[in-house]
Write a structure and sequence with these properties.
Helix content is about 85%, strand content about 0%. It is built from seven helices and no strands. The protein has helices at about 5-20, 25-55, 60-85, 90-105, 115-145, 150-180, 180-190. The radius of gyration is 19 Å and the shape is globular.
Length: about 190
């Protein structure tokens, strides 16, 4: 067992150093996957229901807005995937869609009522559809430049990044909600993207 330990740890060292030396891949993980999941889980599924409750909206209204987010994504994701087949740089699409997602959050203070969220939910959903479809392709593109990172490992790290952002989302948003008014929280999230 003692002789196997160095051999087993060497590949881990190789892919960690390859990951750290590949800014494109690291950027997709941290700036794309983690940020997107912080917004989805922190803003859409945590912040929006609490905000709607503070406005006195019914649970039915809250459910319909969350359903709208999901429905728009179901219908736009296949269309976006077909359109993105013609694009050369998936990482660029992920970056632009992430910025669009943050920009949508910056609109929140101007649309502070239930009707505003009815508009913002589909906008976020479309931006997230544009992130999700090309993110795996962007990861595979960037991983091709690092032979120490296999396609399976690169996709596993993508899922790990998404799950990490999903866990961090409600924690980050809850912490911000204790410090700032609700519209300011949305702006901070939008700027941080």
């Amino acid at each position: 067992l003692g002789s196997d330990a160095p051999a087993a740890s060497q590949p881990a060292t190789q892919w960690v150093s390859a990951l750290l030396s590949n800014p494109g891949l690291l950027g997709v993980y941290v700036l794309g996957a983690v940020n997107q999941r912080i917004i989805v889980n922190g803003f859409v599924y945590f912040f929006v229901p609490l905000y709607l409750a503070s406005l006195g909206a019914t649970t039915g209204d809250t459910g319909r807005i969350l359903l709208l987010y999901g429905l728009v994504m179901v219908f736009t994701r296949p269309v976006v995937s077909l359109l993105l087949e013609r694009v050369r740089s998936m990482a660029l699409i992920v970056a632009l869609a992430t910025v669009a997602s943050g920009g949508t959050l910056l609109l929140f203070p101007g649309m502070p009522h239930v009707a505003g969220l009815v508009l913002l939910a589909p906008m976020l959903s479309i931006a997230h559809s544009c992130i999700e479809a090309p993110m795996a392709a962007a990861v595979l593109e960037s991983a091709d430049r690092s032979p120490a990172i296999s396609p399976g490992l690169s996709l596993s790290l993508l899922k790990l990044s998404e799950r990490s952002g999903g866990v961090l989302g409600p924690i980050v948003v809850a912490a911000l909600m204790t410090l700032y008014p609700l519209p300011t929280v949305a702006v901070i999230l939008g700027i941080s993207v």
